[in-house]
Amino acid sequence: MTRYSREELEAARGRIVDDVVAGGLRVLFCGINPGLLTAASGFHFARPGNRFWPVLHLSGFTPRQLHPSEQRELLSYGLGITNVVARATARADELTPQEYVEGGRILEAKVERLAPQWLAVVGVTAYRAAFGERTAKIGPQERTIGGSRVWVLPNPSGLNAHWTAQTMAEEYGRLREAAG
């Protein structure tokens, strides 16, 4: 993996990382926002401690663990990636409540246009902030967007230590089964 200098990472602040999307996906995964390493590399969930790629494989969504640079392969499995907020930051706590709400509006329009079977938001706090659903919990939600169902998954960040890769894979696996 490419090593980036502090200056290169700082220069990535505010960048937008292209979505990996197509119409009619089985699952559109939605992160909170790109981190600086993701923005510098252009690959979603690029930070080595992030467990998204291992958990995606452990849960059965992919036949092998993909590297972030292979993110476009997700489309062949009916999967995609977007974010609630497009702007890259070092930490999610740098985002404002207004950015979450506006990001939720943009995400709703994107989901209505792309019509995935499921929107999977990775992070209950981000879901609550973007959609104003303060009591939402991990799992399937009552909310639908267009014809798309919504599932909230645990955030795969290494900072989310009370979820192990295995317990996350079990929750992601529940979604995989629901998505067929």
From TrEMBL:
SUPFAM superfamilies: Uracil-DNA glycosylase-like
GO molecular function, one term: uracil DNA N-glycosylase activity
Taxonomic lineage of the native organism: Bacteria, Bacillati, Actinomycetota, Actinomycetes, Kitasatosporales
InterPro entries assigned: MUG/TDG, Uracil-DNA_glycosylase-like, Uracil-DNA_glycosylase-like_sf
EC number(s) reported in the record: 3.2.2.28
Domain Uracil-DNA glycosylase-like stretches: 18-179
Keywords: DNA damage, DNA repair, Glycosidase, Hydrolase
Protein name as annotated: G/U mismatch-specific DNA glycosylase
Class of this enzyme: hydrolase
Biological process terms in GO annotation: base-excision repair, AP site formation
Cross-referenced Gene3D superfamilies: Uracil-DNA glycosylase-like domain (3.40.470.10)
Organism: Streptomyces mesophilus
